[in-house]
Design brief:
Layout: E1 9-12, E2 20-23, E3 28-33, E4 44-45, H1 54-76, H2 78-90, H3 94-131
Length: 132
């Protein structure tokens, strides 16, 4: 049993939540509109719905490479991970927010580790002082 095709009409844009995009029954069109205004005069052409160009693929591959570096630096050297995560987040790449979160979590874990280490060292120094 094959699924029934989605009828043509206006639907929430899969890339931009603030607008609706026209589904022609087979693919997304370049026509968008403000969902608050149902008038067809508000339609505009959106470059995001146009066929992908080689430049688009280059930008995606650059973001993929940056995301890989971001994940590595988020764990190994968190301050750089924060910078890379912020760059990706500013490009509306969801991975950027995750990289930011991981980098911040790693910094917090390092702070906790250092605090515990210092407290342990302090207690050891007190024990050494009283029991020697």
């Amino acid at each position: 049993m094959t699924p029934e095709p989605v009828p043509a009409g206006w639907y929430p844009d899969p890339r931009e939540a603030a607008v609706e995009r026209y589904w022609d029954g087979a693919a997304w069109s370049a026509r968008t509109r403000d969902p608050r205004s149902q008038a067809s005069a508000d339609m505009r052409v959106d470059e995001a719905a146009s066929p992908a160009t080689p430049d688009d693929h280059t930008a995606d591959s650059r973001n993929n490479g940056l995301a890989i570096v971001g994940w590595i630096t988020a764990v190994v050297f968190s301050p750089i991970g924060i910078v890379i995560g912020a760059i990706l987040a500013s490009r509306d790449d969801k991975r950027g927010r995750w990289i930011l979160g991981v980098a911040i979590a790693m910094i917090l874990l390092w702070v906790i580790y250092v605090v515990v280490l210092l407290q342990t060292a302090e207690h050891q120094a007190v024990r050494d002082y009283y029991y020697e």
